[in-house]
């Protein structure tokens, strides 16, 4: 039977449409991952096609792309902007090839956002049981922030896809001696990443340290030495890229003052105010960029993802400490960088950490669902509803219309809940 059948007599006006939903139901039941990925791609393309007006940051960066030679880095970027060299080069090349429309400027983030969705699906299948992998994939595919930044003229979607590619390559290399293929792939990715993504430094450093420690504890000293050499090579390239990127910033930049709110204030001496502010910054991650906290009773609603994250972290380390460290260590390094006032811990600047957080939260749901008792089954279903309902509905809501992004002091898509 087809998707749509027409029933009625010879009178055309008496005919009516009868939609057969069985093929769709069968597809959802048999291939739910494919349905979720298709929905994620559809929402990203839909938001891209709405062709919303650029907001302030996008317009400021676009002035450094339109009419500029691809390799022109002779002076600081205008508009107090900063972006990786390779991102700027590809964007300028697209402008020269396709023109300066919003569609041309946003094509690279869209491609990165869709590629990230495919890579995340593969990583979730690799690390989690099928049920938990599907939960993680739903969170990722229907994440409002990830959908939105897949069509913004900024490098955040590139941060996401680079971090995922590095994590996947490191996951493939874990637990085995360093092979020529794995070393070549990771060395090439590590050498290229600093020119594509600043934020990928946390993922590369975390994955590299995990690979080195894994081989060291296995007493595979040859492989440990190889990963150490790759890591030192990446560090040298990263420091060169950082020095070069600073030349792109005007001496009068206000960027550090703008992001001052997102540095963890945990330097001694500690006080109650500092601890409260640090707690607010950490809880705000569940709003920006995870978007897991509904606006109704947020201080209660945040408990669900927080507890699931804690349960998932413990469960992941119990099942496989190397993959647990692979996910957790980049987050820890980002926390340290924020405490040292080197990198803000907030919103769009840490999209590369979103995959690990979603994977750990999904692992937490699987921990709840392992029991055979009826009460645990009911609890598992209730937790899934509380976890998934708001982010999925809000993603569809925001994607269904033209969204004009407001400018606010914290540069967020969503209002701040825990930092005020």
Counted up, domains total 1
Strand order of the largest sheet: 1-2
Instruction: Give me the strand/helix succession.
Output: EEHHHHHHHHHHHHHHHHHHH
Mean pLDDT: 89
Q: What fraction strand?
A: under 5%
Distance between the termini: 57 Å
Helix count equals 19
In one word, what is the shape?
globular
The quaternary structure here is: single chain
The main β sheet shows up as:
2 strands, antiparallel
Question: Based on DSSP secondary structure assignment, what is the total number of beta strands?
Answer: 2
Architecture overview:
This protein is mainly alpha-helical. It has one domain (32-399). It is built from 19 helices and two strands. The chain has helices at residues 22-30, 32-49, 56-62, 85-98, 102-105, 107-127, 130-141, 144-148, 156-173, 180-196, 200-217, 221-246, 255-258, 272-284, 298-301, 303-319, 321-339, 354-368, 374-399; strands at 4-7, 16-19. A two-stranded antiparallel ribbon has the order 1-2. A hairpin with an 8-residue loop joins strand 1 (4-7) and strand 2 (16-19). Helix 7 (130-141) packs across helix 18, helix 9 (156-173) runs antiparallel to helix 10 and helix 10 (180-196) packs parallel to helix 12. The longest helix has 26 residues, at 221-246. Mean pLDDT is 89; it is low at 1-10.
Which key terms come to mind for this protein?
420 residues; mainly alpha; two-stranded antiparallel ribbon; 19 helices; globular
Short description:
With 420 residues, the protein is mainly alpha-helical. Helix content is 64%, strand content 2%.
Helix and strand topology:
Elements: E1 4-7, E2 16-19, H1 22-30, H2 32-49, H3 56-62, H4 85-98, H5 102-105, H6 107-127, H7 130-141, H8 144-148, H9 156-173, H10 180-196, H11 200-217, H12 221-246, H13 255-258, H14 272-284, H15 298-301, H16 303-319, H17 321-339, H18 354-368, H19 374-399
Antiparallel strand pairs: 1-2
Helix pairs in contact: 1-2, 2-6, 2-7, 6-7, 6-9, 7-18, 9-10, 9-11, 10-12, 11-12, 11-17, 16-17, 16-18
